[in-house]
Structure formats: structure tokens, C-alpha cells
Amino acid sequence: MEVKKDILWRVYLGFIGIVLLSLCVLGRAVYIQQFQGAYWKSKSDSLHTRLMPMAAERGTIYSESGDMLSTSVPYFDIYIDFGADGLRDKNGERFTKNVDSLSMALAAFFGDKKSSVYKKELQAGYRAKDRYYLLKKNLSFEQYKTLRTFPLVNQGRNKSGFIAEVKNKRLNPFGLLANRTIGLSRDYINADGKLVNQNVGLEKTYDSLLKGDKGQRLVRFISGGAFIPVEGSEIEPQNGKDIITTIDVNTQDIAENALMKMMIDNDAAHGTCIVMETATGKIRALANLGKRPDGNYWEDYNYALMATEPGSTIKLATLLSVLSEGKATLEQPVLVGSTGHDVVGPRTVTDAEPQPKPVETVRECFAHSSNVGMSKIAYNAFATQPDKFLEYLHRYHFDARSGIDLLGEEKPRLPRIKRNTEGLHAMVTMSFGYAIEVTPLQTLMLYNAVANNGKMLRPYLVNRIEENGKLIKQFEPEVIEEKIAEENVIKSAQQCMRAVVVEGTGRVPFRDALYSVGGKTGTAHVAGKGIDYDDGVYQASFVGYFPFEQPKYTCIVVIRTKPHPAVHMGGQVAAPVFREVADKLFAAESIRQASQGLNGLKKDSSAFYYAGQTHDISTVMRQLQLSFVDSSNSQSWGSMYGSNGQMVLSAKQMTSNTMPNVKGLGLRDALYVLESRNLKVMVKGSGKVAAQSIEPGAAIAKNQPVKIELN
């Protein structure tokens, strides 16, 4: 009996415990459902939904004349949501009805699979209720436009389940042309798995303006880690701004081709050619070519920004400083000797070429590029105060970067000069282009200042910044030195530069030119970065301006040779490139000036085209009492044009579900027509619409971007 009671007591106790536990679980469930339900639902949603960024369309880089130098081209990945209500409605009637015709259209257009294979794959995706079925990747915009006309797809996203994911790929339409200056914009995954943007050139300098502001959208994750966007949740990105450069495509092409030919002919290592507009400092062309391991040349580095020992082109700075000190005149005789070398102060100086006579004037020393002669006039001027030579180099901005709107410009390197033998040695060496490192761009600035009668301008590459055709910022020429030297000094320097091409080291390349040139050759032994002077590598240069009397352009050419080349002098390697560039620019300028003589001819007004609302056009015509043929059939929009001597008003078709023809419309009318169809409009230019990026009659979608160009 006692055993039975003990067992029953334990059973009752266990039963009571189970009842109490059940009541606790039930109470907790009620509490969670009634009081914490909203919290746990949001927690659940956060595991299945997420805000993801939407990339903004990167701005376009244009030449000064409006040619696209770097732009973003859209590519499309096409997915299908087989769980879309429109496809599942009425037991999939819409899908079943269109799958055959859709498969045939896909097979005919892409040609990669038979229609039966497409149909089988689409049906398998439908049966599996795949919410993110990948149909095609990397479709071009033209392919995407065609795809949208296919059966089922043309019924819209909600009914067809078709989803287009847009990606942008950066392209340089002109390929090699100014490739390094314009730059690259590309993304890659680094060793840590992070997305890194690697830009160079203008793409890097103006990256914050070009890239715009990202948007975001809500996506729902489904099986397999895939996700689908939640319709209507987008916060649209703000596209990047456009950069209009100073680059002239034709000038760039001329410079690049001329440089390329010389590089190939001499198997050179690398080179650069810069063309600057003398009066403004605008860079019209900036070509950079380097030899690749396969022997071809490409714009692999911006050599215009690389600091090297300049050689004899520095002699202009020497000449200006000596003349400014009043320690020499152009006709002052200088003993250069007949041996090709002489002791100047604490060091022996050697001429690269034999001089025509043992005694030359200062002007002849410059024209024939005598190292002995130029170092002697520098020694006579600064022997007691060699550090003063650095003060002149500071005035010529040879101790600071040019400040051009490109990142990566190397800082010039000048030695410290004390008033002792070591300082005197450095000063003499600098006077003919060694012991100092400057960039070709800085050398060009000095020569452009002389061409500009002493006014030094900062070189620049960007004219203005625009957003959807609206001016955001305008850049103007910047004067950094009103006068680098007195007028008489500048005139003397100009005479010496003219003497170089008339009687000196630049005589041969320019002897039959149809225009006058002022400039200077330069040849330097190269050392540094794995190269010794004994390796026989040279840097050939020519820098100058033309036409000499009224300078239009200033240009520098710098070419690094291979070891022990057959020819290596500046007058043999760099000057011919300058000559070819100058010839073609001079010819183009002459043609342009000749064509201006035709501007006085009366324009033919028999051809015209206007567009707008038919009521407005007809009202204007009647007010002006002009007769016309009205064939608009009371349509709202029309165009007026000439036909067989009569003015005709005809209707413009403006359907709501296809791209309208807005050519000829003013901006206000074009914006009304396009935005009323929920299109995102980007505008370039002013006046009336001359071109549109989507052809009339093409299918359109909500928020689809369209660009219009005004004339």
C-alpha cells in the first residue's frame, strides 16, 4: 500500500509539472505573439530583406568640341521572376500562351540555342517557380531594346516577370587617343576581398564629381542567396557631372601619330608631346607613349609629369637669368674653344657637338647649344653668389609643380647651393641641364611665358563642369607670373630662340617651313632608375612656339631613346615630331581662316524644319499672314517644313507607349513630351532638339533615361 501511494504521488507530481510547463509555454507564446510580434516580424524581415546600393551613372568626359572621350555604356543582365503574379495568374495562362513565340524570338535573335531548348529551359524555370532565373548577361543597349519587343516581354515587368539589371562599363571611344590623360576608371577586388576603384588621369582628379551619388533599393533574398528587388522601393541615384576638357581631338590625333612614327622609327623607350594654346594655357594635346614588352606602344604612363634632367632646354632659364642680372649682352663674345671642352670654374665642361668657331656671341652660344659657352656666361654672372641662380629658377617656377589638374605630377628636384666650391660646381652643372630635374610640362610653361611676352600661365585641361547640360563651374586662364623678366630681356630671349631654327641646332628640321618658329633643342645623357650614363641612353627634346611673330601654339617633344641609338640629338629625334605637328596645325589653321571668307555668303533659307504644337504653329503663320498647307488632321503636335516651294504643316505621331519623335522641338516642349511619359531626360546644348538617344517608335519603360542634344 505504501508503495502504491509513493508511485501515485510521483505520477501526480509529474503530471502537475507537465501542466505547469505547458501553461508557461502557452503563456510565453501568447506574450510573444501579442506583445513582441511586431519586433520579431521586423527581425524576420531583416533576415530576408536588405537595402542595397544602386550605382550612379558616371559622368562623361568630352573634348572641347563635344566629342566623347570617356563615357559609361549601359549593359543589361536579364532575369525572370517566375513567381510574378502576372505569370501565375489563371494557372499560368499568359506564360503558356507566349512561351512558344518567346522561345522562337530568342533563338532567332541570339542564335545560340534552338527554340526548343529555350522553351524547355523556360518551362523548367516556371515549374520550379524560380524567382531570379538568369536569361541573358551583358546585353548591349541595342540588344536590350530589341528584347523588349519580344512576346511576353513587351507586356511589362509585372505581367512578364522580366527584370533588367543595369550595369555601366567605362569606355574610351577613341581608344589610344589621350588615353592616359583622360584616364581609366575600373573596379577590382583586392587581396582582402574589398572592391577598390583604380583611376588615373582626369578620371582620378575629378572622380568625386564624375561618380555622382549612389542610390539604394530594397531587395528580398530568396533561396540560393539570390535576391529580387522590391518594386517601388528605389531611391534613385544622382548621376555624375560631365567634364568638358580643353583637348582638341584633331590636335591630339596629330600629336599622337607624329610621336608614334618617331618612336617606331627609332625603337625609342618612351616619349611625350604636349601642345599648349599660347594665349590661354589650355592643353590642346597631351600624348604619352611607352614601349610595352611585346614591342608595341601604348599610353602606359604620363611622361609629361615625370621629372628628369632636361639637358639644353634649361639654357633658356640660364639666358634669362644672366640677361636679367645685366651681366651679358647678346653680342658679347664668349671663348668656347675648338677642342669641344674647357674648364669652367671648378669643373670641366664638354660640348655635345663641335662648335662652328672658337669665339661665339652669347646669341650664337644659345643657337648652337654650347655647354661651354652657356656655362661660362652663367659662371661670370653668378660665380660670387651661385645661390642667386636658384632665385631665378624660383621666379620661373622650376622649384614647384605646375599645378595642372592631373594627379601624380612629380615635384622638381634642385640641389641646395651654398657659396662654396660644391655650390659653384652645382650651379655650373645646372646651367646646361644637369643636376636639376624638372618635368616637360614645367619646361613648356617657361617657353610659353617667353612666347607670351613674359606672362606665365598655368596649364589646364578642363574648361568647365556641367550637369545635364547646365553649367556648374567654368575654368578660366590663370596667370601665375605677370612678367618673368623685363621686356628687353624677353625680346632678347625670343631672338635667341629664333636663331636656333635659322642658324643653329634646329636649322635642318625647319629650313623649308612655311611659317616661322622659335625654339630650342635639348639632348641629355640619362641616368637614374637602373640606368647609368655609360649605358648610352639619351633624352632628346625640342620645345618652341609658332608662328614666331604671333604665337598660336607652344609645343614640347621629349623622347627617351634606347641604349646606344643611331641618332639621339634633339634636332634629329624630337624636332621632326614638332615640325610635323606644326605643319598640320598650321595647314588646318590656314584652311579655317580661308573658310572664314565664305561667311559673308547669304545662307540658303529654302530648307527649314520647325516643330511644336500645331495650334501654336498655325496661329503664328496666320498672324504673319503666311500661306501654308495644313495636313496635321487636328493632331496636337506637328512639324512645319518646306516642300516644292510650299510650307507644309504635318502631324507628329506621339504615342504613349513608344518613343516619340521630339526632333525640332524646343527644350520646354521636348521636356513636357518626354517627362509626361515618365522618361528621365538628360540635355546637352541649347536651341532645338537635333538628336535623341532612343529612336522614335522604340519601346520605352518607366524611368528609362534618354539623352537629347540641342543644336
What's the layout of helices and strands?
Elements: H1 2-35, H2 37-48, E1 49-54, E2 61-62, E3 68-80, H3 85-110, H4 115-127, E4 133-139, H5 141-147, H6 157-160, E5 162-171, H7 179-182, E6 185-189, E7 195-199, H8 201-205, H9 207-210, E8 215-221, E9 227-229, E10 242-245, H10 249-266, E11 270-277, E12 283-291, E13 297-298, H11 315-325, E14 333-335, E15 341-344, E16 347-350, E17 359-361, H12 362-367, H13 371-382, H14 387-395, H15 421-430, H16 440-451, E18 456-457, E19 462-467, E20 470-474, E21 479-481, H17 487-502, E22 518-525, E23 538-546, E24 553-560, H18 570-573, H19 575-595, E25 609-613, H20 614-623, E26 629-631, E27 637-643, E28 646-651, H21 667-675, E29 680-684, E30 689-692, E31 705-710
Parallel strand pairs: 2-10, 26-28, 29-31
Antiparallel strand pairs: 1-8, 2-3, 3-4, 3-5, 6-7, 8-9, 10-19, 11-12, 11-24, 12-13, 14-17, 15-16, 18-21, 19-20, 22-23, 23-24, 25-27, 27-28, 30-31
Helix pairs in contact: 3-4, 10-19, 11-13, 11-17, 13-15
Folded structure, characterized:
With 711 residues, the chain is an alpha+beta fold. The protein has 5 domains: 2-35; 51-245, Alpha-Beta Complex (Penicillin-binding protein 2a (Domain 2)), CATH 3.90.1310.10; 249-465 and 479-594, Beta-lactamase (3-Layer(aba) Sandwich), CATH 3.40.710.10; 609-652, no CATH class; 654-711, Trypsin Inhibitor V, Chain A. Helix content is 35%, strand content 24%. The protein has 21 helices and 31 strands. The strands form 9 sheets. Strands 2, 3, 4, 5, 10, 19 and 20 form a 7-stranded mixed β-sheet that branches. It has a 6-stranded antiparallel β-sheet with strand order 13-12-11-24-23-22, with helices on both faces. The protein is extended, with a radius of gyration of 37 Å. The model is unreliable at 600-604 (pLDDT under 50).
